Each structure stands twice: as structure tokens, then as C-alpha cells.
């Protein structure tokens, strides 16, 4: 039976029987069965069209024909591993190197963001001879055991914090200790990292790495103040550690102004290791680690081979190359800058109208809308955010929430998201918020009269 011929209820029943409930669905009370994707749209089994505002994996658009074709053509000829000479892997490394600062010139190819971050951890430890890691609060860096350990978002609900992990506050200028009125939040938040490093060192610990998403997404679509990373890198390198920029959600032109989100932190800032995933393969399992000669040489010095069965295969590299081609051909980085600033402007206009919209922050097509109970406390409007997301879904718009308070609406759509999509989504959001406010007002009136 073709998958799209089975009714939604039958699929759900089978899934419940065969898959662990740890593997969750979006909208568990009424999940969506998606059978087709194209561009920024996904279609359910009835043919209903949803606008996808969250899938940053389908970076250049769901099922982009050029990416699909590249995979198909290479699949017809050869798919093997990286132990044979093949042009795709070297062409791909060369193309990626052109997007990065010169120093980041050694590449490893893998299959998932988690694998990339796990390798980054090994590289950092081997290079520095140290073991410990500093991470940002609420961060998520992957699902492997090693990464759960450095992901406060996960380990807080599990075994807790390991002695080799040190947590620094999120550089969140809306909710954190240093806010928009602080004269230099970049230095202030970086000093927090310094404090965390010093307190670890006092206990005899040695720092191997600082890991951070270039724009913390799970932490609530946070835009670290410019200059924060260079300051942090100074503190970390003085402690003998390296700086790892996790670009898994935010790289490949999403931020518009630059190809990599860490470049928002200053022209001269260069991480020691950059990890890539998700968008890199437009849905095909591809990931990459880029690092410096010095880090790579230290890893090589062990004499132990790095081998990954599927990473860097001719097909994966053909896919990666096709994604870069499409980004260039369709000028999607510039498009993200243009549509992103238009969307920010539209959302900004709504802020004047709806007091629940506390903060609207973003860069390119990475935008967060922080919903609050009231301006004075900035208390997260968690239930309201949940309600808005479910009402948007009824309107065939897919959005979700992030942040420790699960109150930040996150926009990170495929890069072909259009000006019309932005207008449509904001109009629906406006209607939902207006309706919600009217309902609250009539409840209050009822209460006053009862
Ligand atoms: C910032 C970040 N790093 C790493 C990962 C792990 O990537 P993967 O799920 O491909 O293993 C994710 C996945 O959500 C992520 O968001």
C-alpha cells in the first residue's frame, strides 16, 4: 500500500504500536500526516497545503529538484566510502573552504550534527590535552551520550551536570542579567564565562573547549551581542581551550548578511572548530567539521584512523555541492536578508498592537517572537504561545516554540520563504492575537458582572 493511501488514523495506530513514545510527534493530539513537500510548502494526505516556517533542514526548499537530481545521478553511478579517491569529496571540501576563513581549512565529513559535535569534542580534547567543556545554559548540541552531557537542555532532566561540564549564562539581552540598557553586554556576558572558567580552574579542572551555537536556538532564538564571541574566545584560549561554533541550525546563509552566523560577531573572529549539519544536505544525512591545521595535526598524531562508513560518500558530497549551487544560483542568502528584514518589520508593527509581543529579535531568516504575560516581569507566556501555535496550525501555518519558557515563536523557514508568505503569516498571527485578546476581555467583563 502506498504510504499516502493509508488513512491518518491507521498510520497513527501503527506508529503507536511500533515506535517508542520517546519519539514524539508535533501536535500529538492531532498530528499531521505529511506526504509531499515542495519549496516552503508541505502537503498532507488530503492535499492541504501548509506553510513551513520551521524546517531549517529543507534549507533550499523541500525536495529541491536540483538536489534530488544530483543525488539520483550520483546514486546511479557510484556510492562508496571515503577510502577511495573521488572528486566529489575534494571538490566539496574546496567549495566549503571558500565560504570559511582561511584558517579553517581541514574537513571531516559525517552523517549528523551529533556526530559532528562529538568529533569536535574529541578534536578539542586531543589538541588541548584537557577534558572539560564550558557550555551555554539551555544549549542543545546533540543526542549522543557525549553531547547530552554538554546539553543543559537535556541533562537537567536526566542525570544532571557532570563534573567536567561548566555552564555559563545565555547571552540573552532580553531576559538575562545584562539587558538592552547595559552599556556593554558583550563584555559583561563574556566575563561570566571567565568567572565560570576561573571557578573550574580553582577546582583543578582544565578547559578543553567552549561550545556554543552561533545563535542559540533551543535557548530561545537568542542573538548574542556583537563582540561576545571574540571576548569569550580570549578567555577560553587563555585557559588553554578552543572555541567550537555549532552552526548546525544557523549556517549556510540563513542570517543573510553573512554565510556563517559566527561572522556576525566581527570580521576578524575565527572559531577553532565549526560544526555543520541539518541544512548542509537539505534533508540528506550530511554533516561536516571544519578546523585548523593545528587541531587536525594534533588529532592525526594519535596515529588512529578517522573513518566513517557513510560520511563523505560520493552521493553525500554531490548533495552538498548541489545545495551550495542552489544557494548561489537562487541568491538565497540575499533573499534571506531581504525577506527576514521585511518579516521583522511586519512583526515590529504588530508589537505596537499586541502587548503579548514582548521582544522581536532576529537576523535574516532566524527570528524569535518572545511572548510575555506582562511587560514589567517579562514572564514567559507559555500557554498563550502554545495556543497561538495550535491556532496557526488550524490556519495551515507550521510554527513552533523554543526557549526555557517555551514561549518564543521561532521562525527558521526554508530559505525560499517569500515576502507573500511573510505577509500572510503575520496577518494570521494578528487575527489570532486579536481574537485571543477579545476572548480575554470578554472573560474579564463577565467576571466583573458576575
Ligand atoms: C544546535 C544543534 N546541534 C546539534 C544538533 C544535533 O544534530 P542531529 O540531530 O543531526 O544529530 C542539533 C539538532 O537539533 C542542533 O539543533
Automatic annotation (TrEMBL):
The UniProt record lists the keyword Lyase: yes
GO MF terms, alphabetically ordered: lyase activity; pyridoxal phosphate binding; transaminase activity
Cofactor(s) it depends on: pyridoxal 5'-phosphate
CDD domains per UniProt: OAT_like
GO cellular component: mitochondrion
Highest taxon, organism lineage: Eukaryota
Gene3D superfamilies, sorted: Aspartate Aminotransferase, domain 1 (3.90.1150.10), Type I PLP-dependent aspartate aminotransferase-like (Major domain) (3.40.640.10)
Pfam families given in the database record: Aminotran_3
Keywords, sorted A to Z: Lyase, Pyridoxal phosphate
Entry keyword annotation includes Lyase: yes
Family designation: Belongs to the class-III pyridoxal-phosphate-dependent aminotransferase family.
Protein name per UniProt: 5-phosphohydroxy-L-lysine phospho-lyase
Organism: Muntiacus reevesi (Reeves' muntjac)
Amino acid at each position: 500500500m502506498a504510504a499516502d493511501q493509508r488513512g491518518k488514523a491507521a498510520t497513527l495506530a501503527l506508529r503507536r504500536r511500533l515506535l517508542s513514545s520517546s519519539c514524539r510527534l508535533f501536535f500529538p493530539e492531532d498530528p499531521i500526516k505529511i506526504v509531499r513537500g515542495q519549496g516552503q510548502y508541505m502537503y498532507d494526505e488530503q492535499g492541504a497545503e501548509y506553510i513551513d516556517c520551521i524546517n531549517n533542514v529543507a534549507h533550499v526548499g523541500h525536495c529541491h529538484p536540483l538536489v534530488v537530481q544530483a543525488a539520483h545521478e550520483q546514486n546511479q553511478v557510484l556510492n562508496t566510502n571515503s577510502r577511495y579517491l573521488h572528486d566529489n569529496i575534494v571538490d566539496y571540501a574546496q567549495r566549503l573552504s571558500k565560504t570559511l576563513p582561511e584558517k579553517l581549512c581541514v574537513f571531516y565529513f559525517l552523517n549528523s550534527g551529533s556526530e559532528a559535535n562529538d568529533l569536535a569534542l574529541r578534536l578539542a580534547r586531543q589538541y588541548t590535552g584537557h577534558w572539560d567543556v564550558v557550555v551555554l545554559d539551555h544549549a542543545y548540541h546533540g543526542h549522543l551520550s557525549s553531547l547530552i552531557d554538554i546539553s543543559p537542555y537535556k541533562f537537567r532532566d536526566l542525570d544532571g551536570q557532570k563534573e567536567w561540564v561548566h555552564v555559563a549564562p545565555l547571552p540573552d539581552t532580553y531576559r538575562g542579567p545584562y539587558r538592552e540598557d547595559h552599556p556593554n553586554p558583550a563584555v559583561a556576558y563574556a566575563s561570566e564565562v571567565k568567572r565560570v572558567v576561573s571557578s573550574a580552574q580553582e577546582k583543578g579542572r582544565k578547559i578543553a573547549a567552549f561550545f556554543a551555537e552561533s545563535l542559540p536556538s533551543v535557548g530561545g532564538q537568542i542573538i548574542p551581542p556583537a563582540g561576545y564571541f571574540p571576548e569569550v574566545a580570549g578567555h577560553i584560549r587563555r585557559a588553554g581551550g578552543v572555541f567550537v561554533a555549532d552552526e548546525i541550525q544557523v549556517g549556510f546563509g540563513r542570517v543573510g548578511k553573512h554565510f556563517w552566523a559566527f561572522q556576525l560577531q566581527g570580521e576578524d573572529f575565527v572559531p577553532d572548530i565549526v560544526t555543520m549539519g541539518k541544512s548542509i544536505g537539505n534533508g540528506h544525512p550530511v554533516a561536516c567539521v571544519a578546523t585548523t591545521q593545528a587541531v587536525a595535526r594534533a588529532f592525526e598524531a594519535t596515529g588512529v584512523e578517522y573513518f566513517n562508513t557513510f560520511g563523505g560518500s560520493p552521493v553525500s558530497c554531490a548533495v552538498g555541492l548541489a545545495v551550495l549551487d542552489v544557494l548561489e544560483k537562487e541568491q538565497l542568502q540575499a533573499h534571506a536578508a531581504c525577506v527576514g528584514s521585511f518579516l521583522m518589520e511586519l512583526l515590529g508593527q504588530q508589537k505596537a498592537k499586541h502587548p503579548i509581543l514582548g521582544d522581536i529579535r532576529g537576523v535574516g531568516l532566524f527570528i524569535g517572537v518572545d511572548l510575555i504575560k506582562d511587560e514589567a516581569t517579562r514572564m514567559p507566556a507559555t500557554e498563550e504561545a502554545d495556543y497561538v501555535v495550535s491556532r496557526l496550525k488550524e490556519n495551515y501555518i507550521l510554527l513552533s516554540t523554543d526557549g526555557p519558557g517555551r514561549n518564543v515563536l521561532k521562525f527558521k523557514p526554508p530559505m525560499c520563504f517569500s515576502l507573500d508568505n511573510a505577509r500572510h503569516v503575520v496577518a494570521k498571527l494578528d487575527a489570532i492575537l486579536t481574537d485571543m485578546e477579545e476572548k480575554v476581555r470578554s472573560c474579564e467583563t463577565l467576571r466583573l458582572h458576575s
